[in-house]
Amino acid sequence: MADERDKSVVIIGGGAAGLSAANQLQQAGVDAVIVEGRSRLGGRIHTVDVDGSDAAWVDMGAAWIDDHKTNRVYHLIEPAGAGVEPTVPKLTNVRAYDERPSRWVGRVRAVLAMGKMGWRIHRLKKPTTKFAHLGERIDTMLGTKAGRFDEYLLKSVTELLDGGPVSETHQNAFSDGPWEYLRYKEKTSVMVVGGFRHVVDELSASLDQDRIFLDHGVVAVKCWPQFEGSYPVVVETANGATFVGTHVIVTVPIGVLKANAIAFEPPLPAEKQDVIERMGVGNVEKVALTFAAPFWREKPNKAMHFVSVPDPFEPRSVIIDVTDTAGAAPGAAANPCLVAICAADVAKATADRPHDAVESTLATLQQMFPDSYQPPVATAVSTWSADPFSQGVYSYPTPRTRPGDYTLLGESCHDSRVLFAGDSCTAEAYLSSVEGAIVSGERAAKAIIEGVD
Ligand SMILES: Cc1cc2nc3c(=O)[nH]c(=O)nc-3n(C[C@H](O)[C@H](O)[C@H](O)COP(=O)(O)OP(=O)(O)OC[C@H]3O[C@@H](n4cnc5c(N)ncnc54)[C@H](O)[C@@H]3O)c2cc1C
Questions:
Q1: Which of 194, 297, 302, 435 places its Cα 20 to 30 Å from the Cα of 30?
Q2: Residue 148's CB: how many other CB atoms inside 10 A?
Q3: Are the beta carbons of 19 and 34 closer than 8 angstroms?
């Protein structure tokens, strides 16, 4: 096993996985650089101050901490004084609207439909072999008598969770058993006051800033046997820079791997390439809006969330009231904020035409609140699907994804010189989550520290 001082690691990506790996390596005295394509750290954690007032902080990427009492992310930010709020739609603070025939769904009907949705999602936990894809399974479950609202709820919520269209998602995507990870029990689900930027601040606070290279998009990773010597791994960036090391940790998202944005020499093993090909890349986008007044609230201090069934029917979006977490810190003033979240094909269209997405969200609000509606003060739209450094949001299992695929994606290759981390490589934690990314980054760093080479 080589001495720690002989090791030198190039980490591609400064998101949660890359930052956690860097912390672990730095603490062990192993030299590490972070090579990051964007001009900021955080990756798919991105909190924006929508109207620039320091009172409208909205997460355009990761936003919820599930089961926070046992979640690493909460315990990372809690000592620094970050507050959390249980901003989750519940039966008592969600109202449902049907754009055909332009009226509110009765409260009893809405509560019943949401209860039924919970029960149906619970039924999806049982693995089956009967269906070609999740959409077929859901359609069979709904039967011919389910109403527009029931269909909308089940398809929208499942697409929001995975990001993939139900017609391209594995029938057991929500089942216990087939995949090598556990889902959160979701006994609690909280948002961070002031946003997930606190997580990035905590993860990057102790890192040597001179070892972080922003605006360096990696285009090639070379690790030929003839490079054997002090630094057998060479990482090249689009702006002509070269980084060398004994190991590289690749933390780029599944969308970037699928797009072959980084050329690996020698190529990645065929079985890893097959796994990447079999996984789906989901799309989720957010339209954030700030207002002078919370015209949608029935009581000034009670957050209200909305589901609106569009006409023509398509799983489109839910609208979440995030005012309670928009302040800079617990107790600080916050501006009224709403976030419309959409998934799958609608999210792709949102990233391609952000302006249209804002207009359509505002039209929905105007339709719901013809008397009290006010235009927004400021807006922001995420474009993860069109961003070269994410190319989608997170992975979902397609009908071709196999049990074991996520473990395989996380395995190292090229003589254990090229390691993988990130939220799709997290067999022992939770897929598609910041906590999973943190755990996977630490695992890759430990493998290098403990000398798997
Ligand atoms: C809309 C949305 C909502 C979400 N909601 C939640 C939630 O509520 N709770 C939760 O826990 N998780 C949520 N997630 C998922 C969570 O954000 C991710 O799982 C987590 O942030 C992934 O961290 P990572 O380090 O694996 O990847 P990333 O954060 O994507 O980091 C990878 C880094 O690699 C960089 N990169 C990419 N290509 C290159 C290249 N060629 N060269 C150099 N650098 C490159 C990227 O810029 C990025 O900084 C959400 C994500 C999105 C997009």
A1: 435
A2: 16
A3: yes
Q: Kindly state if the Cβ of 252 falls inside 6 Å of ligand 1.
A: yes
DSSP for residue 365: H
Residues 424 and 401 sit within 8 Å (Cβ to Cβ): no
Structure tokens at 206: 């102790």
What does each C-alpha distance from 388 to 59, 136, 212, 252, 340 come to in angstroms? 19, 32, 20, 11, 23
DSSP state string for 117-147: HHHHHHHTTS--SS-SSHHHHHHHHHTTT--
pLDDT of residue 68: 93
251 SS3 class: coil
Task: Say how far apart CA 443 and CA 436 lie, in whole Å.
Answer: 10
Rounded Cα distance, 352 and 354, in Å: 6
Is 80 within 8 Å of 192 (Cβ atoms)? no
User: CA–CA separation, 303 vs 336, rounded Å?
Assistant: 10
Using the mean position of ligand 1's atoms as its centre, give its distance from the Cα of residue 423 in Å.
Answer: 7
Q: Is the CB of 284 under 6 A from ligand 1?
A: yes
Give the global pTM: 0.96
Taking Cα atoms as reference points, which of 333, 298, 336, 300 lies closest to residue 320?
Answer: 336
pLDDT for the residue 226: 72
Closest atom of ligand 1 to 421 CA is: 26
Q: Which of 243-247, 330-334, 397-401, 428-432 is predicted least confidently?
A: 428-432
Q: Say if residues 355 and 81 touch (Cβ distance below 8 Å).
A: no
**Distance (Å, rounded) from C-alpha 447 to C-alpha 248?**
12
What does the block give as tokens for 14?
Answer: 């400064």
235 phi and psi, to 5 degrees? -115, 125
- Orientation angle between helical segments 107-123 and 134-142, nearest 10 degrees: 130
Within 8 A by CB and 6+ apart from 182, the residues are: 430
Which residues lie below 8 Å from residue 30, measured CB to CB, with a gap of 6+?
Answer: 4, 7, 8, 9, 445, 448, 449
Nearest to residue 23, comparing CAs of 297, 192, 209, 206? 206
pLDDT tens profile 360-383:
999 999 999 999 999 999 999 999
Write the CB contacts of 185 (distance below 8 Å, at least 6 apart in sequence): 67
Closest atom of ligand 1 to 384 CA is 53
Q: Name the closest-CA residue to atom 41, ligand 1.
A: 218
Quickly state the pLDDT bin for 89 (edges 50, 70, 90).
confident
381 touches ligand 1 (CB under 6 Å): no
Is the Cβ–Cβ distance between 165 and 159 less than 8 Å?
A: yes
